[in-house]
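Much of our argument rests on the idea that a fold can be written as discrete symbols. This step matters because it turns folding into a mapping between discrete strings. The record that follows shows the chain in one-letter code together with its fold in token form.
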Amino acid sequence: MSVSANQVRDVVSRALTALQAHADELRGLDAALGDGDLGITVQSGSKAVIAAWAALPAEAAVSDLLLAAGKAFSTANPSTFAALVGGGLLAAAKTVTGKTEAGKIDKLDKADVLAIGRAVAGRIAERGKSQLGDKTVLDALVPSLDVLDAGEGEAPQLLAAMIATAHERIDATAGQQSRKGRAAWVQERSVGHPDPGATAYLRFLECLRDAW
């Protein structure tokens, strides 16, 4: 598994375009547990990232893409989810800084993708003061990264395994009470509802698979 920066820009941009179609679904899920702004956050954030990437030069490295994405997503809509994801992407940029060879566009292998994902998860956990079992995006993100770490094969097969695991974890945690964010305010009424942020991550993985 090896992808260039231009492939990342192309595939992820198409995935983010498709992800915007899930805005109503995510707004509904978030309205049951919070203030209902997740759909707007994902939609506006996706548009902002696509626009930011389109403005970058063709030779932009993956670290440039991650920095631009983090800044764009975090400022597109004033929400906690935007700040957490944007901050995670900014932290992830540091894991691939300096990977551009002279005269060549950098490429990512599975280890690089894992490092990016772990950095995003780590920053979300740190800033959100959350951990596995709190019924947040981490409950889908971290197990899916574990599957990627242990998996073999090309990107479509790895993505399929990550999607299956994320789906399973979201179903499993739906029966739990939310412990963080606005969802925690509704206490036992959060039981029976899937976490909106985790669902947004799942939809992104599905769109990424389709864009591939």
About this structure: Confidence is low (pLDDT under 50) at residues 182-187. The first strand starts at residue 2 and ends at 4. The CA atoms of residues 78 and 201 lie 19 Å apart.
